[in-house]
Structure formats: C-alpha cells, structure tokens
Amino acid sequence: MDGLGELDERISGCRACPRLVEWREEVARTKRAAFADWTYWGRPVPGFGPHDAPLLIVGLAPAAHGANRTGRMFTGDRSGDVLYRALYDIGLASRPDAVSADDGLTLHGVRITSPVHCAPPANKPTPAERDTCRPWLVQELNLLRPTLRAVVVLGAFGWQAALPAFAEAGWAVPRPRPTFGHGARVDLEGTEGADGLSLFGCFHVSQRNTFTGRLTPEMLRGVLRDAARAAGLHPFGPTPQAGSPPAS
Predict the structure, then answer these.
(1) Largest CA distance in the chain
(2) Which residue, 5, 49, 48, is CA-closest to 62?
(3) Of 69, 93, 138, 201, which sits with the fewest C-beta atoms within 10 Å of its C-beta?
(4) How many Å apart are CA 29 and CA 39, to the nearest integer?
(5) Could you read off the pLDDT of 100-154 as tens digits, one per residue?
(6) Which residue has the higher pLDDT, 172 or 193?
(7) Residues 15, 43: contact at Cβ < 8 Å?
(8) Nearest to 215 by CA among 165, 152, 164, 137
C-alpha cells in the first residue's frame, strides 16, 4: 500500500472530535427513510481519486446522507450530482453521476478531498473541528506534492481552512491572505525548490447555490477547466456561454 492508501485508512478510523463522531454514527443508525435499506458508512470519508493527481478539489465536509452514507466524497447527494456532471462534461470523470462507492466511477487526473472528513450537524463544523482535522489535509498535500499543480477550493469555508494547510505543506501563502471569490486565482510559490501551485476559488456546489443560480453549470465548468489547464490536463466539452453571471 502506498502513502495515500495508508493515509486514507487512518483517516477512516479517526475519532478525534466527539461531537462529529456522535453525529455521524447517529445518522448512520437512524438513516433517512429513502435509504432505510442502506448500510451507512458512518465514518470519516477519505479522499477520492488517483494518487498522482495534478489537480485537487477541496470541498467542505461529507453530507450526512451523501458521503456519510456511501463512504465516498460527494457521492449520493445532489451536490455530487452537480460536481461529477461538470467533471464528466470536461473529460475528467468516467461517468456523469456518483451513486455508490462501487459504481465504477473513476477520475482522470483529479482527486477530491475536504478539510473536515466527518459529516457535521447542519453542515457546519466548528473552528476547533476544522483545526483538529487540518493535519490530515496537510499530510494529503504533502503526499500529492510531487504531482500537484492546481487546486480548486469550493466555498469560503474550504478556502479559509485550506490556506493554512497549504502553508504547512510548504507553499508560500501571501499575507494578508488572499480573499475568497468565485473565479479567484492565486499562484502560490513553492519553497525549497518545489513547484508552485495555482489556487482557484469556486462557489460551493451546494443546493442553495445551484438552485438559486448563484453557481451555474457553465460557471462551474469554467473554473474546473481553467484549473485543469493550469494543472497540465486537457479538458474538453461544453464551454461557458456568453452572458454567464460574472464572478463575485
């Protein structure tokens, strides 16, 4: 087993945050009626994707009845439907949906992770839980560092959580820290001769953002395509339409 495989196993066994442990396991016991016949994962959800990915997507935390149920990032909920559809549209995913951990989905050159690996109540980790989970992200970044060239961070929470992790993993984060915004791009210099990293901001693929049109499929594909190119990948598929909502 390689370093990331070992890290994923260790993450899956973490019990460091009592509130999150209690919540994720309670959800797994009580379930949602629509998933009554499922055996919920009910544990921390590790990253998903190739171990030599040049592009990383950083979310927020697993959804209670999505990844906390299926055991795979952004799998089994509507946010994942939006994200994987966009990745498929530009050639970075093998299928346009993600329903279970054994559905055969593979990612091409992109890995997905989060700064908090347990499903939190109301989708809101506390600052202490975010900070407790940060060493996992730092270790993941260190293991991906030989190939990693670009990162897309979904939402302001992920942005604020990820910047200290990038600094700990050896990239030079400007001060004052860059402000989150959809379409924001920050190029981080590597230290000790390491390669730099292009950081992209994107509104989160939450139902609130996608249902209201704050984040459209065209906007999401646009950020993912720009990041993929910065990572040395070659995305294709639908291009952003003229008149798409401006970044804000």
Answers:
(1) 53
(2) 48
(3) 138
(4) 9
(5) 999 999 999 999 999 999 999 999 999 999 999 999 999 999 999 999 999 999 9
(6) 172
(7) no
(8) 152
